[in-house]
Amino acid sequence: MLNAKQLCELMPHDGLMCLIDSLLHWDDEHLVCSTKTHLRSDNPLRSRDRLSVIHSAEYGAQAMALHGGLLAQRSGQAPIAGFLVSLRGVKLHRERLDDTIFPLLITARKLMADSGNLLYAFDLTLNHIPVAEGSAAVMARREV
């Protein structure tokens, strides 16, 4: 199993902005990970001592980036950073992420991949209760 530092090396974030603690399962099409960073008082997304559920999109995007990084690593390539270009069908089922004691479970499923364009679905749960869901389009950043 990879530790949190190794997971961060597969994503375009570091330090406190690396929000995923552990990888539970992954394959070619999806990934399941978890975190307790939503409970940390030094979470960089907190505002007014709260962590809004709107930040679920960032957690979902980091799960997608981690999936891409794992796929790249397996094929012997360096991870490629991507740009989040759109969110669709996002449903938020609560107001906050930090008013719980449970780890946040994040699932990302690759729906489509075509020459640098990716479409993922994501969902987040706390203790098997839905927190947020939606889909995101990502465009891989190519070096010029």
Radius of gyration equals: 14 Å
> What is the CATH fold-level name?
Thiol Ester Dehydrase, Chain A
Sheet with the most strands: spatial strand order: 1-2-4-5-6-3
Low-confidence stretches: none
The major sheet is characterized as: 6 strands, antiparallel
CATH homology-level superfamily: Hotdog Thioesterase
Secondary structure tally: strands: 6
Could you tell me how far the N terminus lies from the C terminus, measured between alpha carbons in angstroms?
34 Å
What percentage of residues falls in helices of 4 or more residues?
10-25%
Describe the 3D structure:
With 144 residues, the protein is an alpha+beta fold. It has a single domain, classed as Thiol Ester Dehydrase, Chain A (Roll). The chain is built from 2 helices and 6 strands, in the order αββαββββ. The protein has helices at 4-9, 56-74; strands at 22-26, 30-35, 82-92, 104-114, 117-126, 129-140. The protein has a 6-stranded antiparallel beta sheet with strand order 1-2-4-5-6-3, covered by helices on one side. β5 and β6 (129-140) form a beta hairpin. 29% of the residues are buried. The mean pLDDT is 92.
